[in-house]
From TrEMBL:
Residues 1-67 form the Reverse transcriptase domain. Residues 443-601 form the Integrase catalytic domain. The gene is Tf2-9_462. It comes from the Eukaryota. Keywords: Endonuclease, Hydrolase, Multifunctional enzyme, Nuclease, Nucleotidyltransferase, RNA-directed DNA polymerase, Transferase. This is RNA-directed DNA polymerase. The lineage of its organism: Eukaryota, Metazoa, Ecdysozoa, Arthropoda, Chelicerata. One of its GO terms (biological process) is DNA integration. It is an enzyme of class 2 (transferase). Its EC number is 2.7.7.49.
Length: 719
């Protein structure tokens, strides 16, 4: 049936399996829609049974509900079944009763709270015992439904309002609308219990959480329209003008930026409905969802979204008249002006300016609305931001817009809109071609003047309980040390650093990433006492510590060739991997790290087969003097080689495009490839923001500050 009646949902014609419902505002429209449905049924060779049809009804029963003018109620037939239900005697009967009443939970405020004693009976570990507590819960649910609860149907042509409130233990919210007489009708209810951590929040934070809970749960009603939020916390009504709100509140209100709302202070004594829901106490033993969102489903599931097809024709005509471009085209059409052959074919129908193109594609000959500039933003939101189109790309959005709409400069408007879409920017990948060149670091003058260290792991736990490798690298000789460790806590890092210093002395400068184990108070005290200048690489920029990152990769690659199938013996092969690295020729320094450190080549296994006799010296002083001379000449050569290598790198790098350069005051997004725990990398947003650039430290280093969370300041790399 859904195939037969496809495309008629905008006419308030809905179907579910073989049930069809037709809604109209007047008798004439109703006859036209009936005729349209009969035509579809005839074309599909389908018949309807007259005894099962009801025509021209002001109230009908449909899918267990009674729908009448402006209201929705439970079906009286089902209420009779509930009224005659006897107290259950088994767990299965309890589940059946909860299933029946749960179908109408949208009509029962605090349904979860009322049903807790019965819900606890359905647990596999609980023994079935029917006491006074369960009987009271049973009677309470029955009485709530027997009293024929009623909710008002939402009218999407009128604004909504939210009443939000928070108490010590829970949150409450009511979605309301005013009728023509000014009387407020409830459309939906919501309430939930506060978690253990949330109970500790301040009063202001609880009220802010209540607003977040209310808006996000009533999203289907509120998204795309303006609404008012009433709360009894006066400070929140000025949240957008507060100079320094707490980071938690700022983060919550950042998620609500896509909504158009205004917060108005309403004292608790005047905020009765939400205040009552929030004051309701919820037992601690509640193990089921406390959220009670009572949705009233309209016939058209997309009715909360802006749709020009349901926009009043009179307002469209008025907006076209007030638009200079549309008004100019209208005047030309009325005067029979000859447009360019490449222009759309404009025409006026019922005072509305439309157009079409000569048929080259399936949709070209279709009449398209000429959209005034005041409605372009709404059309773009509908064709790009709408959940049903899910932020599609430029070509697909253009195709979707061109099917029904036209305006001057359509392509550039759509392109600019997608380029500035907040959600798309958060998911957008990073263009490698636009990366900034690597900055030159001053070369070193002697061994262990500058070092870098990093941690690798976790690996397979070895037989001695080691899971990580801490590697330390010398910038001058390229010599490396690596230590197998069970963890990378600050105490372990300090022990490794002291062991390294006992062998090679204290370095002047030590580089690392921003890991907390390298920046703890204990480690900072170690650096200070030893006189080490601590330098940090920028977040999400491994190139800043590229030499030690390359060492890590080399060690892992080498170990992969040496370990057994279980990989538990990796720590045994780590010395061999280090020996291979230390005795390997490095193109930058044109020597091996071992020779540059010791002034001689260590004897390797392959040297024992065919080798020259080991050089001998007459005494130790003569060896020392020759070693000093050899190392001095070698170090001079190394420094020249390092300078030459740095010059070559700078020479072959592509210049950073001027269009990609960033200045203080610019709005930017932060590329964050790391994802939160228990989330999917494929679905994660890759960029955070927006941030404002507050300071430029170098060509590639910037200090940024989140525009909605002033306390969120970071020093980052332009890449």
């Amino acid at each position: 049936m859904s195939i037969v009646l496809a495309g008629l949902s905008d006419l308030q014609i809905a179907c579910y399996i073989d049930d069809v419902i037709i809604a109209s505002h007047n008798f004439q429209d109703h006859l036209q829609r009936l005729e349209l449905v009969f035509q579809r049924l005839t074309a599909a060779n389908l018949k309807v049974k007259s005894s099962k049809c009801s025509f021209l009804q002001f109230a009908i029963s449909f899918l267990g509900h009674t729908v009448r003018e402006g209201q929705v109620l439970p079906d009286p037939k089902n209420l009779d079944s509930i009224k005659n239900t006897m107290p259950p005697r088994t767990k299965k009967q309890v589940r059946s009763f909860l299933g029946l009443t749960g179908f109408y939970r949208k009509f029962i405020p605090n349904y979860c709270k009322k049903a807790i004693p019965l819900t606890n009976l359905t647990k596999e570990t609980s023994k079935f015992t029917w006491s006074e507590k369960e009987q009271l819960a049973f009677d309470s649910l029955k009485n709530c439904l027997i009293s024929e609860p009623c909710l008002s149907l939402p009218d999407f042509s009128k604004p909504f309002a939210l009443c939000s409130d928070a108490s010590k233990f829970s949150l409450g919210a009511v979605l309301i609308q005013e009728d023509d007489t000014g009387f407020q009708h409830p459309v939906a209810f919501a309430s939930r219990k506060l978690g253990p951590t949330e109970i500790k929040y301040s009063v202001c934070e609880k009220e802010a959480l209540g607003i977040l809970f209310a808006i996000t749960h009533f999203k289907n009603y509120l998204y795309g329209s303006e609404f008012i939020v009433y709360c009894d916390q006066q400070s929140l009504s000025r949240i957008k003008t507060l100079k320094d709100p707490s980071s938690r509140i700022s983060r919550w209100f950042l998620t609500l930026q896509e909504y158009s709302y205004k917060i108005i202070h309403k004292p608790g004594r005047l905020n009765h409905m939400a205040d009552y829901l929030s004051r309701a106490r919820y037992p601690n033993e509640d193990s089921v969802s406390i959220t009670d969102i009572h949705e009233v489903h309209a016939l058209n599931s997309n009715c909360t979204e802006f749709n020009l097809s349901s926009f009043p024709i009179e307002e469209l005509i008025a907006k076209q008249i007030s638009d200079s471009y549309c008004n100019n085209i209208k005047s030309k059409v009325e005067s029979n002006f000859q447009f360019s052959p490449k222009s759309p074919k404009f025409f006026i129908k019922n005072d509305l300016l439309l157009c079409y193109r000569e048929k080259t594609g399936r949709h070209d000959s279709k009449a398209k609305l000429v959209v005034p500039q005041s409605l372009v933003q709404n059309v773009l939101q509908l064709c790009h931001d709408n959940n049903s189109v899910a932020h599609s790309g430029l070509s697909r959005t253009l195709k979707r817009v061109k099917v029904n709409y036209f305006w001057h400069g359509l392509y550039h408007t759509v392109k600019q809109y997608i380029a500035s879409c907040h959600s798309c920017i958060q998911r957008r990948g990073f263009a490698k071609s636009s990366k900034a060149p690597v900055q030159r670091i001053p070369t070193t003058d002697f061994p262990f003047q500058k070092c870098a260290f990093d941690a690798v792991g976790p690996l397979v736990t070895s037989t001695f309980g080691n899971k990580f490798i801490i590697a330390i690298f010398d910038y001058f000789t390229r010599y490396a040390e690596a230590y197998p460790v069970p963890n990378i806590q600050s105490s372990t890092v300090a022990r490794v650093l002291l062991d390294f210093i006992s062998r090679h002395g204290i370095m002047e400068t030590l580089y690392s990433d921003r890991g907390s184990n390298f920046l703890s108070e204990a480690m900072m005290e170690v650096y200070q006492r030893l006189g080490i200048s601590k330098r940090l690489t920028l977040s999400f920029n491994p190139h800043g510590n590229g030499l030690v990152e390359r060492l890590n990769k080399t060690l892992i690659d080498t170990l992969s060739h040496l370990v057994s199938e279980t990989q538990e013996d990796w720590y045994q092969h780590l010395p061999l991997a280090l020996m291979a690295f230390r005795n390997a020729y490095h193109r930058t320094v044109e020597e091996t790290p071992a020779f540059l450190l010791y002034g001689r080549d260590p004897v390797m296994p392959y040297d024992l087969i065919f080798s020259d006799p080991v050089r001998t010296y007459s005494d130790t002083p003569s060896y020392a003097q020759q070693l000093v001379n050899r190392l001095q000449s070698t170090y001079t050569l190394i420094k020249n080689n390092l300078e030459k290598s740095a010059d070559e790198i700078q020479k072959h790098q592509k210049p950073f495009p001027k269009s990609k350069r960033i200045c203080v005051g610019n709005l930017v997004y932060l590329h964050t490839p790391k994802i939160k725990l228990h989330t999917s990398k494929k679905l994660a947003k890759q960029n955070q923001g927006p941030f404002r650039v507050v300071k430029q430290n170098s060509l590639v280093s910037f200090e940024i500050q989140h525009i909605n969370q002033p306390s969120n300041k970071q020093t980052v790399h332009v890449n």
